[in-house]
């Protein structure tokens, strides 16, 4: 954790451990987490994350949300969780954010307490007062104290969701259709970049990202097989993009010299030229090499996102 942020957390009586901090402020359980650059860019969320644990009814949370919306907090993302309030913040510099944190903490905690949010003496999931039934768990990366019965309920829900997922149909045909559409979009990007003189992984990444989204959108089941299918479609379509570039250029060149032949015939003619054929092979190898790099990088990220939640 950044030294300045760690010092702020310590000043609030929180214990700092690596990139996270945990403590109790005004009788509310508070978590602080700092994301690294890659985590922040991949999640699309602000890098400084906070969680305030409490129990409140849906109506009470709606009132809290309205109050926080009315406060018009700059550079702030927030939503309510099953066990409290999640907040992500940023600013032009960390120093400016830390200057704002005392007043922001006061705003969040007062909004919670003034609208009926129960403090750390109560389970944030069910509202039951703790006796000897409190368990500290890692939920969504935060340390949260909950009732042991709620832990059993969470595990039962996770088990039920995982079972339903396993039993759901794979719908490979629908998924492949989505992957093919992503591949077509990747071809368009690849042709544009190729004609600009670039070898790039961008087209392959676009293809696999769009293909993955459409694979799921069309009804395909998001499994490791999805990654294999989308990756293979991407590589095949990237190879096709090189062929199309030469095919189109051959047709244009034939017309420019007044030959009344098809683009396919023109392509066969230029491939008889050993120099052009050699350029074609080099371009094919380079495009596939950069495509493989893009596919591997994106596949690793997608693979991590497919991991099912396990029992806590």
Description:
The structure is a single chain. By secondary structure, the protein is an alpha+beta fold. Helix content is 59%, strand content 15%. It is built from 10 helices and 8 strands. It has helices spanning 3-11, 37-43, 58-71, 94-114, 148-167, 172-195, 202-217, 224-256, 263-271, 274-305, and strands at residues 15-17, 20-25, 28-34, 48-53, 76-81, 84-89, 134-139, 142-147. The strands form 2 sheets. Strands 1-2-3-4-6-5 form a 6-stranded antiparallel beta sheet, with helices on one face. β2 (20-25) and β3 (28-34) form a beta hairpin. The longest helix is centred in the last third of the chain and has 33 residues, at 224-256. The mean pLDDT is 87.
Q: How many E-type strands?
A: 8
Strand content: 5-15%
Shape: elongated
The profile of the biggest β sheet is: 6 strands, antiparallel
Number of DSSP helices? 10
Distance between the termini: 25 Å
The SSE order reads: HEEEHEHEEHEEHHHHHH
Set out the fold topology:
Blueprint: H1 3-11, E1 15-17, E2 20-25, E3 28-34, H2 37-43, E4 48-53, H3 58-71, E5 76-81, E6 84-89, H4 94-114, E7 134-139, E8 142-147, H5 148-167, H6 172-195, H7 202-217, H8 224-256, H9 263-271, H10 274-305
Key features?
single chain, 312 residues, alpha+beta, 6-stranded antiparallel sheet, two-stranded antiparallel ribbon, 10 helices, 8 strands
């Amino acid at each position: 954790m950044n030294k300045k942020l760690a010092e702020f957390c310590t000043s609030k009586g929180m214990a700092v451990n690596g990139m996270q901090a945990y403590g109790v402020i005004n009788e509310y359980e508070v978590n602080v987490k700092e994301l690294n650059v890659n985590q922040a860019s991949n999640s699309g969320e602000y890098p400084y994350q906070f969680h305030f644990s409490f129990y409140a009814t849906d109506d009470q949370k709606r009132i809290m949300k309205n109050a926080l919306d009315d406060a018009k907090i700059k550079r702030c993302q927030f939503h309510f969780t099953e066990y409290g309030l999640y907040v992500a913040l940023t600013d032009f510099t960390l120093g400016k954010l830390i200057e704002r944190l005392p007043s922001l903490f006061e705003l969040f905690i007062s909004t919670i307490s003034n609208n009926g949010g129960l403090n750390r003496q109560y389970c944030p999931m069910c509202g039951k007062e703790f006796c000897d039934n409190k368990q500290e768990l890692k939920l969504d990366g935060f340390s949260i104290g909950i009732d042991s019965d709620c832990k059993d309920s969470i595990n039962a829900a996770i088990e039920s969701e995982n079972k339903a997922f396993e039993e759901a149909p794979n719908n490979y045909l629908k998924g492949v259709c989505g992957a093919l559409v992503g591949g077509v979009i990747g071809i368009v990007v690849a042709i544009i970049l190729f004609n600009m003189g670039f070898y790039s992984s961008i087209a392959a990444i676009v293809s696999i990202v769009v293909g993955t989204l459409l694979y799921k959108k069309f009804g395909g089941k998001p499994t490791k097989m999805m990654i294999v299918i989308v990756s293979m479609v991407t590589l095949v379509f990237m190879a096709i993009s090189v062929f199309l570039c030469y095919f189109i250029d051959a047709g244009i060149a034939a017309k420019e010299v007044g030959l009344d032949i098809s683009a396919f015939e023109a392509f066969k003619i230029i491939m008889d030229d050993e120099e052009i054929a050699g350029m074609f092979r080099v371009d094919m190898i380079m495009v596939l090499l950069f495509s493989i790099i893009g596919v591997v990088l994106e596949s690793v990220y997608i693979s991590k996102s497919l991991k099912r939640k396990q029992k806590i």
